[in-house]
Every structure is written in C-alpha cells, then in structure tokens.
Amino acid sequence: QNLDALKELKSLVRLDLNNTQVQNLDALKDQKQLQWLDLNNTQVQNLDALKELKQLQYLDLNNTQVSKEAVAELKKQLKDVTIFCD
C-alpha cells in the first residue's frame, strides 16, 4: 500500500496500519508529531524512516519481517519508545 497521502498530514499523532499490506514507511519520515504507530501484521522490513520520529512512544512490530538488529538500532535512536516485537 502507498502511504504518500499521509505526507500532507503534518500533525498526525496516532496511526494504525495493523493488518495492511504496507511495506514502505518513507512517507512517515516527516511525521515529527507521531507518538503511536501500529505496524502489527504488515509487510514492513525497513525502519529507517522512523529514526527521526523523536516523539514516538509506542511501536508495534509484531508479525512483521523486521530484523532484531533493526529493532535494536531503532531503540538506540529513539530512547523513549516502547517497541513490541515478537
């Protein structure tokens, strides 16, 4: 799924993409107000677009293809985030 339409939403705080076919998160990289993101059961593999989202507090990565290494790297960048990952 394409998230380009979200680029225009500059004050997005919560986003639930649970059970979608989303793969690419690049459209979220400028969502600086985002605090809550549910990516459970998606096709996401790369978390690079989230590294600058300093307001992010909750991130659900259960049932994704994200590697343990990518999760560890994101935790280094975003110290206040709680990440759920199986």
Word description of this protein:
α1 links the parallel β3 and β4. It contains 1 helix and 4 strands, in the order βββαβ. The chain has 86 residues and is α/β, with parallel strands linked by helices. The protein has a 4-stranded parallel β-sheet, with no helix packed on it. It is globular and about 30 Å long. The model has no long low-confidence stretch (mean pLDDT 94). The N and C termini lie far apart (23 Å).
List keywords for this structure.
single chain; 86 residues; alpha/beta; four-stranded parallel beta sheet; 12% helix; globular
Layout: helices, strands, pairs:
Blueprint: E1 14-16, E2 36-38, E3 58-60, H1 68-77, E4 82-84
Parallel strand pairs: 1-2, 2-3, 3-4
**How many individual β-strands?**
4
Q: Helix/strand/pairing class, anyone? A: alpha/beta
Instruction: Estimate what percentage of residues fall within beta strands.
Output: 5-15%
The amount of helix comes to 10-25%
* Largest sheet features: 4 strands, parallel
Shape: globular
Mean pLDDT: 94
What's the gyration radius in Å? 11 Å
From the N-terminal CA to the C-terminal CA, the straight-line distance is 23 Å
**H-E order:** EEEHE
Unreliable stretches, pLDDT < 50, 5 or more residues? Answer: none
Given the structure, what is the number of helices?
1
| Main sheet: strand order | 1-2-3-4
Quaternary state of this entry equals: single chain
